[in-house]
Amino acid sequence: QVQLVESGGGLVQPGNSLRLACTSSGFTFRNFHMTWVRQAPGKGLEWVSNINMDSSGTTYAEPVKGRFTVSRDNAKNILYLQMNSLKPEDTAVYYCAKRTWDVWGQGTQVIVSS
Q1: CB 84 within 8 A of CB 17
Q2: What is the C-alpha separation between 88 and 76, in angstroms, rounded?
């Protein structure tokens, strides 16, 4: 079935890094633009980053610009989010999704705390 599965979340100290992965199945991954969104505790969904189907373009929300990098491996059907210089305010559940918004992963928890 059509599925997105995130992984790579965890507890990390401020200033450190994490790389999230989103493994897709059940659809032709390379044909779709993809996105990362997050939801902090008690808050609504916040868009984080987009990447075009062929990696030709990426965009970032201001709070993560310069610290996060989105990428994808269309041969492996995996979307990535490299998160550097993490801050406590990056604490959230991170979700990957197709830009058509019809398929989402289950989310992976990121906690940034000393």
Answers
A1: yes
A2: 31
At 46, is the secondary structure helix, strand, or coil?
A: strand
Question: Which CA distances in Å does 88 have to 21, 27, 72, 91, 110?
Answer: 20, 35, 26, 6, 10
φ, ψ for residue 4, nearest 5 deg: -130, 130
In angstroms, rounded to a whole number, what is the distance separating the alpha carbons of residues 3 and 69?
Answer: 23
Question: Taking a C-beta distance cutoff of 8 angstroms, is the pair 96, 4 a contact?
Answer: yes
Contact criterion met (CB below 8 Å) for 50 and 99: yes
CA terminus-to-terminus distance, the chain: 39
Residue 11 amino acid letter: L
pLDDT tens string 47-87: 999 999 999 999 999 999 999 999 999 999 999 999 999 99
The Cα 114–Cα 98 span in angstroms is: 33
